[in-house]
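User: Hello, can you help with two protein structures?

Assistant: Certainly.
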Amino acid sequence: METQSTSVIIATNDQILSDRLVRLLREFRTDVVTTSKELWIHVRNEEPDLVIIDHRLTPQSVAVLKRRLVASDIAPDVLELSESGSFRSTDSIPIDTGDESLVAEVFARLHRREAFRKTNLIGRSDALYRIAELILQAAPSTISILIEGESGTGKELVARAIHSNSKVAAGPFIAVNCGSFAEGVLESELFGHERGAFTGATGRRQGVFELSKGGTIFLDEVGELSSGTQVKLLRVLEQREFMRVGGAETITTDARVIAATNKDLARAVEQGKFRQDLFFRLCVVRIDISPLRDRPEDIEPLFWHFFRQLSQEHDIQVPRISRAAMEKLMRYSWPGNVRQLRNFVESLSVLKKDGEINVEDVDEYIIDRGYTNTRLPVIGSPRQDQIGLDLIWSALMALRQEIAALRRELGIAGWSVPFKEVQVDEENHEPLKSYEDQRLPNMEEVEREMIEKALRQAHGNRRRAADILGIGERTLYRRIQKYDLQDVK
């Protein structure tokens, strides 16, 4: 990272703080602004890599400023200097953080941004950053790499990032979907064929291993290879040579092979459906791309990235989106992953050419296409970082059904059965307070109570509390901040 070419904007009206930050960040090009209006002018002119915002800058919510920056064409990284002693979110640090820690945080953020820039990956999640780092570490070598992930997660994008950061970046990049060819046709596609090798082979044809010399071959859906093709691919990887179909001439290749699959190849090996030796050859380095539902932090930057792309390609205006609609997008499971999110943005670009995107627009898209309704719990991966609220909602729905069944069995109607214990008059066994006077707690109240109980049970240990609740630590941290439970032990 070239520090002198790195731009940092400091947004604060505290002279002492600005002087301190300018001194600490003297390795970078720094500009100080004192109002949000100045900030936008400098963002347009300087195109900064990082914006540091003092939480006291403006009466306008800093959260609104951060959202606008993320949605802008520049999309700089944003670091908020939050109130002293306050809970630290993923994009903020306390304003009284020590000099050494603050500088380390800035360098870490700029290094992260540089990794995303070099790999062309769009997002801000830790999971995506780890992939970017792994790409940059593995790309300069010639070792084989296996990319695993659900359909639509961007496996080819990762493969292209590896190629563009490799020593053979100037060479060809050829992608082959192994699942889209019949066995005989795929062998011809990979290795080429001689004239007369089969019916219809009227001339010699070069395969991708021959055409991609000095470059990279991307074998997508490699788990679909037949056993015969697996043997031939293994020989190429081990001997770096092959023969065309129907040929006798040995041809050498120096092409790098990157494979991808949406299957669990290790399990396929156990089941005897994939050769173990080929698996080890392909999986020298393994990159696992998490589904989009496991990294909701990436949804908003991807949303704006796709809109900006479409705006440039089709000369359309980038619309506004309500915060409630964006939050709903971030809660949705996205079964089609990044590909589905792009489809959603493309639909909006046609149907919503002006005005603000709202919750109804999100619901209409999801329901019209037969996807899961976001208002119901989403069944996802057990690693899902956002399932806490869904689990609570599922429990409430199950409890509601049980109560309804009990009412029917007892022939009782019209009760609003409370969660808390009802006090009873011991003489006549009548409730001191009628059921009708009591209400069911809303979801936030139930969630807060569950989190508080888990924290007390774990004696304030947040990792243990997250395990008790069955949710991710980061999800728990956000809920603790939301319900002001920082001091619960």
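That covers the first. Now for the second protein you mentioned:
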Amino acid sequence: MKRTALLLPITILLLSSSLARAEKPKSFDPFLDTLQQRTIKWFLEATPVTTGLTPDRWPSPSPSSIAAVGFALSVYPVAVERKIMSRKEALTRVLSTLRFFWKTPQGDGTSNVAGFKGFFYHFIDARTGLRVWNCELSTVDTALLLLGMLFCQSYFDRNVPAEAEVRALADSIYRRVDWKWSMGSLEGISMGWTPGEGFNRLTWYGYTEGMFVYVLALASPTHPVAGSAYDHWLSTYTWAEHYGEEYVQFAPLFGHQFTQCWIDLRCIKDRYVREKGLDYFENSRRATYSQWNYVKQNPGKFRDYSATIWGLTACDGPKDTTFVVDGQERRFIGYGARGTSSTWSNDDGTLAPTAPAGSLPFAPEICLPVLKAMRRSYGSQLWTEYGFRDAFNPTFVTPSTPNGWFDTDYLGIDQGPIVLMIENLRNGFVWKVMKKNPYIVAGLKRAGFTGGWLGKK
């Protein structure tokens, strides 16, 4: 499948900022070890060693998603640290992946190419690596792929030929990307480019998951964008109160999570959040609590919503249809972004485990209980040898789904944050490695981030 809102009085809502905060866990829960190990197993079994082309989804047949590959590249070092695979095994997978992407053809044609101007197409054939589905040259998905490569560049730091080759390939692939070209005549970086059609007129502007796009584009030693591009990113932020929390608004939780899967935004601030007196880590914590408050109140009266069953983000869904459930007409959708904010909300009763899992470092006190409750409440319908299936909808009750709808697939871009954010909660490992990458440091500084581990400007 192609991937392409009974308010309570404000005095009650504001309790979420103080009395209603849940108590933080006192130690690392062994359940998270099990969840992480099973999710890593999915990446290892679904991704061919010879190409490294992680499928967009599995077990349903699908092409590879370059974003899923970026997550896979980041999962391998975590697997080494968790003693699930050896450093040599991980190095073999990383090298085959980087070699494959370095050699795949680039060009402005509509077929027999994997990318153009250093960018890669969103979806590529799982065997050949060539463009499929007439999809776009994706700036954000290329950036996710690059984050995985740069993570490996910093992790594989030993003075041996194979690890030196990883560092060199990651450097060459990153330096090849023409970020300046990706702006076209726009004020910010375009979401994509399609041969014969040109640039998507929509740009990456705030606040979405795309902050890392600008971090990478600003840091480029070969084709950097100007600082005005980041000003464009900040120019459309919406700061508002929503379900008891004040924060920069974005409805699906993945937008508050993806950049921080790799980049530690604790205590470092750009000019916007500096003026607000917080950092993006705190902003994501507030967004997580806002969604928790929303689901507890359950204005749409969806089945099973509670303090321990929640999670709205971009994910699979039952299908595009409308019918009556519990005396109310319900509209359901397939794959799509779900979430709640002051500016936009979309909720059809579909929940995704990756939503609370991706927020574990921000609010473990409310995210860990939901993951354990999902496993306990739904058993093998949702919990398998590969961890959690992508999504489920208890409200989607039909003759063929009397207990609600449960996905049969796992999605790479939803599996990835589970592994990385569990590790960041455990010991900050992914963040620590990325702090060593000079491109990440340079990009943050050029975006105007200061303080914390970055120091003064």
